[in-house]
Amino acid sequence: VQLQASGGGLGQAGGSLRLSCQASRIAFSGYDVGWFRRAPGKEREFVAAISWSSGITAYADSVKGRFTISTDNAKNTVYLQMSSLRPEDTAVYYCALRLPASPLRRRVDDYPFWGQGTLVTVSS
Q: Fewer CB atoms near the end CB (10 Å): N or C, the chain?
């Protein structure tokens, strides 16, 4: 399984960015996909997750109402639309994959497959 996160870059506070996560050698259908982030000097933390089959989503309180996780079946891609960006959103963002679970899992250790991260920097 290979996951590739992309779309990071420099954003301004109040602005938007969209991250993408693509998979090779596997179809996302039937799995749960999560987005996590690691800010400088901090531990990796949960951001959002989605069940590909049901569309059920979960968000960290810190991003709820600002970030949206979604899927594109045709492109086998998961997106993280980030809006109303804040400087504290600055982090390396990772996508991760696991077998379906209910409720959606939020712990780093619950996801066995990870992609390389993409850096998001938000300026004030």
A: C
